[in-house]
Amino acid sequence: MIRYRLNGSLSPMREEEEYGRNDVRIELMTIQEFEADKEQISHKKLLLRQLEQIQYCKAEIFGSCIIGTFAVPNVKNLPGKKESFGFHMVKDRLIFVEGGGEHVKSIFDRMREIQYGEQGSMSAFFTGFLNYLIEGDSIFLQGYENKLIVMEDKMTKGLQKNFYEKIIRCRKDMLHLQSFLTQLADMADIFRSNTNHLFEAEEKEGFAIFAHRVERLGDHVSLLREYILQIREMYQSQIDIAQNRTMGILTVVTTIFLPLTLLVGWYGMNFTNMPELTWKYGYPAVGVLSIIIIILEIRFFRKRNLL
């Protein structure tokens, strides 16, 4: 277990230290430590059941506490394994329960530099924590947009290998990220509702600001999803154009050899009264005629930009 005191800033406590009567307590526990904690924790069994299989971010308000879970995707592998942990919040105590990862602790280490007022505010700390969860998302989305621009530029220069697989991967990335942001927005709305009056009226403003920030990120993700769809449609158009060009070439080749097919069929009848059959120049004449027909047809198709 790692314990912190919130008294203007987030201060780690030594093992032998005791909390003061008015201290705001922030604690990071494993599931086993949370289960073995001897203090009275309301809805403890419910949170333990939720920690068994965390699928998404959510928060639930009860009479004197708020409990919930987080499933935070890794921006380096959005469809992959998520950082999962839960929390239990009362007026003066916030417990984070992590299954063995270091994600929450790494955020705490960065949050120790922030000031939360003289006495320290639970709402200010928690909104700060929420903001750290999406800290790098704006930069990530800008980088992802640049990546899509590069993909589009390469696509305009010709058909790319495994392009559809890349587009599908991008669509999945944005789908997972948008799902995460939507869940955070729902959590912010639940905290803003403050139905158990855990926060003062003015403290809810921080959750409103966070919700607006998440909404802007969600709008950016929606724009990128539309951009991905446009790139896919452009790529499909290029494939259609290439196929039409191939079909056009095949049609021209077929048309060029159609008169020759007629000649072959005509003189392949071998009727005894056909004068060309006994003419000593018949074979060369047919060959010259075929070459002339091919040359004329090629000139015709080139004038019409079909070759």
From TrEMBL:
Record has Transmembrane as a keyword: yes
Residue ranges crossing the lipid bilayer per the database entry: 247-269, 281-301
MF GO annotations: cobalt ion binding; cobalt ion transmembrane transporter activity; magnesium ion binding; magnesium ion transmembrane transporter activity
Subcellular location: Cell membrane
Top-rank lineage group of the source organism: Bacteria
Entry annotated with the keyword Nucleotide-binding: no
Gene3D superfamilies (alphabetical): Magnesium transport protein CorA, transmembrane region
Pfam families documented for this protein: CorA
GO cellular component: plasma membrane
Entry keyword set: Cell membrane, Ion transport, Magnesium, Membrane, Transmembrane, Transmembrane helix, Transport
Membrane topology: Multi-pass membrane protein
Reaction it catalyzes: Mg(2+)(in) = Mg(2+)(out)
Family: Belongs to the CorA metal ion transporter (MIT) (TC 1.A.35) family.
Name by which UniProt lists this protein: Uncharacterized protein
